[in-house]
Structure formats: structure tokens, C-alpha cells
Amino acid sequence: MGDRCFYFGCWGNTAGHYMRGPGDFRARERVSYFGNHMHIDGSLAPRSDHGRIVWAAQGVTREERSRLSWETKECDQGVFLLHNLDTGFTAVQWWDRTQGDTRGGCNSTVLLEGNHTAEEMLAALAEHWPEVLANLEKAGVKLVDVTPAVEGRKYTSGRP
């Protein structure tokens, strides 16, 4: 795949989230934020709200995003959502405690320039970040797309 691919998450068995990928700092900064200056850290990962799949960034107001972050439950590790962001990148994000940090809120994100399918995103993950997949496999975590389960799915700029 010739498109630029980035990974955001824990790296090298250390705590904290880091952006890894090609290009200079400005390119990495550009893909870290979307919508109304929303940071990707955990804002795109699926959450359960009384059995309904949601994500924090779908909240239109700060209060809605806060409610979605604090009053809903993280989905199982490996369960991911596909997002076409207004930055020109496609993102998949999941909760992930297999990359070196086991605390709640740990997530992994793959960002690939252009509009892509879930299958293309997973292929990019395998090509560019095989160590992430190896850690998931070692922990018995499988990546599962729940995007089709989201009702009324239209996504740009951090809003459904």
C-alpha cells in the first residue's frame, strides 16, 4: 500500500500513547486531530451504551462527549470501529491493553491516508505494524469490526 500509514497507541512495552509513522512532526500532528480539534486518543473506540455501540467523538457538544466517555463502557479489546475522518484519513480504533500498558483507556489506532475498507485497514496494519498484531495474537485478542452494527452511520468531523 502506497498510502501513508500511522499508528497511535502504546509502544515498546511502555506506558503512554505515541504516534508512529512516516513524515515529519507536522504530518503526525495533522493526523492526531480531526473535526473540531478533537484528539484521536480513545475518542473513536467503540463503547457500549445500554447495548448500543457509540464512541465519544460522536457527541456534538463537549458535554455529550464527556457523557459518552464517562457514562458508557469500553467494548472488549479488539472490537473496532472504522471512521472516515475529515483529515483525509481512515481510522480504525480499538481498546488495547496488549501493547505494554494494561490500564483502562488504552487504545490502538491505525490511520491510513484515503478512504478505505476495514479489510484494507487490517492489511495496512499487518504490513506496517506487524508487532501490534503479534502482541494481540499472543494475548488471544482478535480484531472484530462492529461498524455495521452502528445505526445511522455517517461520519465526518467527529459527528455521526
Biggest sheet layout: 6 strands, mixed
Mean pLDDT: 84
Helix percent reads 10-25%
Oligomer designation: single chain
Computed over alpha carbons, the radius of gyration is 14 Å
Could you list some keywords that capture this structure?
160 residues, alpha+beta, 6-stranded mixed sheet, 3-stranded antiparallel sheet, 4 helices, 23% helix
Model description:
The structure is a single chain. The chain is of the alpha+beta class. The protein has helices at residues 25-32, 62-70, 118-128, 130-138; strands spanning 5-11, 14-20, 33-34, 38-39, 47-49, 52-54, 73-74, 79-84, 89-95, 107-113, 144-145. The strands form three sheets. Strands 2-1-10-9-8-11 form a six-stranded mixed beta sheet. It has a three-stranded antiparallel beta sheet with strand order 6-5-7, covered by helices on one side. β3 and β4 form a beta hairpin. Mean pLDDT is 84; it is low at 154-160.
Short description:
Helix content is 23%, strand content 30%. It is an alpha+beta fold and 160 residues long.
SSE blueprint and pairings:
Blueprint lengths: L4 E7 L2 E7 L4 H8 E2 L3 E2 L7 E3 L2 E3 L7 H9 L2 E2 L4 E6 L4 E7 L11 E7 L4 H11 L1 H9 L5 E2 L15
Helix pairs in contact: 3-4
